[in-house]
Please model this.
Amino acid sequence: MELNENVRGRLRQILELIYEKEIAASVRNHDRIPYTADENGHFDDWTERDVCWWTNGFWAGLLWQLYAYRQNDFLRLAAEGIERKLDRNLMTAHGMDHDSGFRWLMTSGADYRITKSEKSRNRLLLAASDLAGRFNPAGNFIRAWNDDGGKNAGWAIIDCMMNLPLLYFASEELHDPRFRHIAVRHAQTAMKYFVREDGSCCHIVVFDPETGEFIESLGGQGIGVGSAWTRGQSWGLYGFTLSYMHTSRAEFLAAAEKIANYYIAHIPSSGLIPVDFWQDASCDFEDDTSAAIASCGLIELYKITGKEEYLDAALKMIFALAESRCEFSPDRDELLTHCSAAYHERRHNFPIIYGDYYFTEAVMKLLGCETFLW
Ligand code: GLY
Model:
């Protein structure tokens, strides 16, 4: 990618800081599966707390990215350990959900791409089959979450767009379009019911699971019905971009650009992203994860379309994070500091592991040294 020398230099420095930091963190945490870090900068561990938690692949994904970059075996061994631990998830029916792409593309997908491990390929295909099995043909959507007594059997969420690459992978690997057909049909449903006229996206859509009829949309992790939860915008932005990259269908590129234009129009002058674009200016809830995920999508959109505004927006957010929201000290585990799981949760502005993953992916993408895992 054509970047001026000053920008490239700053990005190289950032990547160097990340590399040194993550080496130190992987030595301290080689047997952990982190989600967040405490106030002393120590990762937590979800191995026993919930081995089926949806974010359990991201630390491994980050380690694999850096392993592919510099081949430090310590990083690979830590990532392989997490992948093996997730076999307990793969064998727990009620622990499998719409987020299998997040978990297995970041672990087994990276392992298979980099080492050609047959065990990893097997895990990927099992996870893809489970994800495909969640497709509801009456409404053409992949259902979200699991049985809660029938109440959410017709729920779908925008996040799921990011899991479709697992289905594209299975179709390519097995020379069989079935998985891709499901991904395309889900993405078309999402285009119709999640992406609004102004380019913003809703988080949850409820369908009648028997007839497939649209019932309503819900506010989910954002402020409320009709609002623009920023991570949801990022899942849609990057998710539709990925569906375009895997299928070359112009409709998905159009959806991705529509969301991107909405997102860019709402980036604050600071370049730091709130939890919901609807939130009051006096509210200080931030979500660095949204900025990092959107940056990845915008960089890919720039590569596809050549439109400078996508690259400019990504650089603005990445440098804003690097300058004021990154903890580069190798003595602390967390990288991004101001993430939020949901607007209505009590806790805000804390480290979340997938923010670290997507921030690193975005920096490596800009420098052309990323391993593409989607
Ligand atoms: N996939 C759930 C979230 O973005 O919080």
